[in-house]
Amino acid sequence: MTTATNDTIILGEDLGMGANKLYGTQGGLQLPSQVAINGAQKVTSMVGLRSQKAPLHIRTQQGSFYVGSDAHDWGRPVENLDYDRLTGAPEMHALLYGSLTNFIQKHGKLDRPISMMVGMPIEPLTGPEAQANLRAVRKWMEGIHEWQADDKEYSVEIAEVSVTSQPVGALFDYLLDEEGNFIKERKAAFKAEVGIISVGFNTVELLVVRDKQPVQRFTAGTTAGVRRLLELVNSGKHYSLGELDSQLRRGNLNIKDALPIWEREVTGVISQQWGDAWRRFATVLLVGGGATLLKDTLPYRFNGKAFVPADPVLSIARGLFKLRQQVENRKRK
User: Fold this and answer.
1) pLDDT at 82
2) Neighbours of 170 (CB within 10 A)
3) 64, 73, 221, 317: most buried, per Cβ within 10 A?
């Protein structure tokens, strides 16, 4: 059981465009953000070929979906990378329910109300629509959720949702331990300047925090994430991005020629926003699936200041979980 108190269960939720990540007391998991509808394929085995297991099948009030790895092989791909999907599109419900299903199967029932810290990209959290976006996320996520996964009934209550940016999750993954307490030797960094680079599927997000506040001129989000790498490989548009993502995750995608081009795009975004100002930062945190792809080159641009956490893909969700733990700890004092 993933519990915070006798009354609530704490989860960190990273609404990633490449994967939906959940993290709780017993650990985390990711579900590739692939969704397909109108699936009719039933052939799972054929003599002479390997048997094929169907992706997780989710039924909601809004429809029937395949979710997760290889979902795009089983139905019509849904590839909406607009930020509007985060405010309650049907495929986001399906992905959340798929993640919760996997979490329940791995860690046990979520039989108490859930207190959830949610991470979103920076762009929808800035500008005139920011408050409306926050309200929309809370509206669709809070409440009783019921669905079917592979014909089995599931139900959970999400009692409280707090929303912050994904890079903030990475920051608190670095600063806090699993109980939500500051790591002594890192606490001082919170008063200095810390740079965060999150290279996700859809975006490259930059955030600099000084004395517990964001430095506005160093904060940005651009759509130069891993999908740009896949687009370079997919110049003929013969595959969905989800199909290519599955190949990439298995190590079956040839990215040798495209990787250096994409890397220059990523470093160009960083240089344009930060210049050489990173030299004054106490540390530079590198997280996300893209950081894993660039692990042999990107950290070395920062002259020993770069920090890549254990499992950088789950870092944001883990940090969101830790931040929610800290909030709950303060409530109890």
Assistant:
1) 80
2) 32
3) 317
The dihedral region occupied by 226, where left means phi > 0, alpha psi between -120 and 50, and beta the remainder, is alpha
The closest alpha carbon to 158, from 143, 179, 140, belongs to 143
Rg (CA), the chain: 20
Residue position matching structure tokens 């810290």: 117
> Does residue 333 carry a pLDDT above 90?
no
Contact 100, 110 (CB under 8 A): yes
Alpha carbon separation from 122 to 202, 264, 315 (Å, rounded): 12, 22, 16
- Band of the pLDDT at 49, cuts 50, 70, 90? very low
Across the chain, mean pLDDT equals: 90
The predicted-structure confidence for 227-275, as pLDDT tens digits, reads as follows 999 999 998 889 989 899 999 999 999 999 999 999 999 999 999 999 9
Spell out a b/e string for 173-184, using b for 16 or more CB atoms within 10 Å of the CB, else e: bbbbeeebeeee
Phi, psi of 328 (to 5 degrees): -65, -35
Q: Is 43 exposed, middle or buried, given 0-12, 13-18 or 19+ CB atoms closer than 10 A? A: exposed
- CA-based torsion, 323, 138, 242, 153: positive or negative: positive
Sign of the dihedral through C-alpha 203, 208, 214, 216: negative
Q: Is 113 left (phi over 0), alpha (psi -120 to 50) or beta?
A: beta
Domains and CATH numbers, the chain: 9-332 (3.30.420.40)
Helical pair 226-233 and 241-250, crossing angle rounded to 10 deg: 100
For residue 88, the Cα-to-chain-centroid distance in whole angstroms is: 16
* φ and ψ at residue 256, rounded to 5 degrees: -55, -45
